[in-house]
Amino acid sequence: MIRKESSSLCQSVGVPHHAVPVNRREFFANAGGGFGALALSGLLAQSAEAARFVAAPNGHHSATAKSVIFLFMEGGPSQLDTFDRKPLLNELAGQPLPSSFREPLTAMGEKNAPLLPTKRKWARYGESGLEISDWFPHVAQHADQLAVIRSCYGEGINHSGGCNLMNTGSTLGGRPSLGAWVSYGLGTENEDLPAFVVMKDKRSAGTNGVRSWGQGFLPATYQGTPVGDNASGEAIANLQLPKGVDEARQLRKLDLIRQINQQHAARLPNVSDLEARIESYELAYRMQSAAPEAVDLASETAETQELYGLNDKKTADFGKICLLARRMVERGVRFIQLYSGTGSGWDAHSGIESNHTKYCGAVDQPIAALLSDLKRRGLLDETLVVWGGEFGRTPMSEKGDGRDHNPTGFTMWMAGGGVQGGQVIGATDDLGLYAVEERAHVHDIHASILHLMGLDRLELSYNYQGRLERPTVNEGKMISKLIGA
Predict the structure, then answer these.
(1) Are residues 483 and 418 in contact, defined by beta-carbon separation less than 8 angstroms?
(2) Per-domain boundaries in the chain
(3) ∠ CA(302), CA(305), CA(309), 5° rounding?
């Protein structure tokens, strides 16, 4: 039985903008505690493991994308060496930054270091003739699918603030992540899998840990679910019964826990953690049958595994999570975030040549494979792929052969999901330091992702302590050129 909530009621009481089941507890009570022979303690202990599942999701307008795969290059990739060629940089190499650029940098505390040239070779690709460096030769083959936004900017000058901004819309921790907002706004197309999944190339907490995919002030059910992030090496922890515990014993235990949780929930209806815990048990039971199949890469053909670079140590880690992302998109997962360089790996204050050679080499083939695989399966048109980091890098050198953080002008790109490819949007100045044309703040990036998913950044709201909160903090706008407008 499904109940529809009106938009005004959703905004006033902070409930989702989609349909919700009303007799869930009664169903599971009548089913004799049948929500799981699963050791869920580990799942609950990781504070980012719950997601909400509902039927009949609906947005604010027609969507061009059903799912998002956000390829997050943690640490800040250099736009100057990848997707934003600046010939003047090499002409002025070794010289101080021209005086016209210095005043804003002085306010930011930057030093007047000499300009560092790029050693990259560039070429034009596809019918569009997009310029891409030799660090991304595989992705370059998809130039006509890419909308390269060269004018991104934000206020996150360090990794913590930058990652918070790119993930939550604020440099300060505590707000919901973009994936949590999408899950809240749309629910899931598959009640047996999480709506929001996070996968990393390393078993590391990353710069901000769970804050990067947390639910903030939204109900706890909208947190991201880490996959492949546990010491056992399992794709998802605790899907199997612990040793010495049979199914009958586990069912008795879970039935008792359910009763206790329901008693607490009845007394404290406004405590979302209790609701999240009950729903986590329900999800865990459903995941027992659905999740193992979803993460089983052995079922993929040898050709597909080779396409993603699973047979090459250099590309295997990121290739694996790219392939898992495609499998999850096929199964209706809404928002998937993949981390490369988990723990600020792309942060090249020195030795940018060795650093970016390593990380570009690790992601180039897998990302290109993901785009190819989605396209040949008819999924790219409805899957929005986003690439970028928390900021870019400066044209000035640091430590002689590196680049510092640059939040004032950097590059991201999008493909699929209704995006018009083969185009460049915006520009930085002649040295790639500041965004100067068609500037796109991080809030604009978020607003655009939400729009392509059918969500209006102002209509999507949650009543938190008497204030209507919105995903882009009441700022940002759709980048209309992404859809050719």
Answers:
(1) yes
(2) 52-237+299-483
(3) 135
CA dist 288 and 238 (Å) reads: 9
CB 269 within 8 A of CB 14: no
Residue 33 zone, left/alpha/beta (φ > 0; ψ -120 to 50; rest): left
Residues paired with 468 in a beta bridge: 463
User: Token pair for residue 211?
Assistant: 């804050």
Q: pTM for this structure?
A: 0.83
Give yes or no for a contact between 414 and 149, defined as CB atoms under 8 angstroms apart.
yes
Tens-of-pLDDT digits for all 485 residues of the chain? 222 333 333 443 344 454 444 444 444 444 433 333 333 333 333 333 333 322 234 678 999 999 999 999 999 999 999 999 999 999 999 999 998 776 555 445 455 799 999 999 999 999 999 999 999 999 999 999 999 999 999 999 999 999 999 999 999 999 999 999 999 999 888 788 889 999 999 888 889 999 999 999 998 889 998 887 644 455 565 566 677 777 788 778 778 877 887 887 788 776 666 666 666 656 665 665 566 778 889 999 999 999 999 999 999 999 999 999 999 999 999 999 999 999 999 999 999 999 999 999 999 999 999 999 999 999 999 999 999 999 999 999 999 999 999 999 999 999 999 999 999 999 999 999 999 999 999 999 999 999 999 999 999 999 999 999 999 999 999 999 999 98
Query: What distance in Å separates the CA atoms of residue 455 and residue 448, rounded to the nearest whole number?
Result: 9
Residue with tokens 């002030």: 217
Half-sphere exposure of residue 298: CA atoms within 13 angstroms, side-chain side: 4
- The DSSP result for 2-71, as a single string, is EE---HHHHHHHT--SS-EESSHHHHHHHTTS-S-SS--HHHHHSTT------SS---SS--S-SEEEEE
User: Cα Rg for the chain, rounded, in angstroms?
Assistant: 23
Q: What would the two tokens of residue 321 be?
A: 């999570």
Report CA-CA distances (Å) from 284 to 40, 135, 186: 7, 41, 21
Instruction: Tell me if the domain spanning 52-237+299-483 has CATH number 3.10.110.10.
Output: no
Distance of CA 349 to the CA centre of its chain: 25
- Do the Cβ atoms of 426 and 149 come closer than 8 Å? yes
Which runs of E-coded beta strand occur in 102-154?
Answer: 122-125, 130-133, 146-153
- Decide: 395 and 98 in contact? Cβ < 8 Å: no
Q: Do the Cβ atoms of 67 and 29 come closer than 8 Å?
A: no
Please name the residue ranges forming H helices in 295-409. 302-307, 313-330, 352-376
In the block, tokens 């009950």 appear at 278
d(CA 376, CA 158): 39
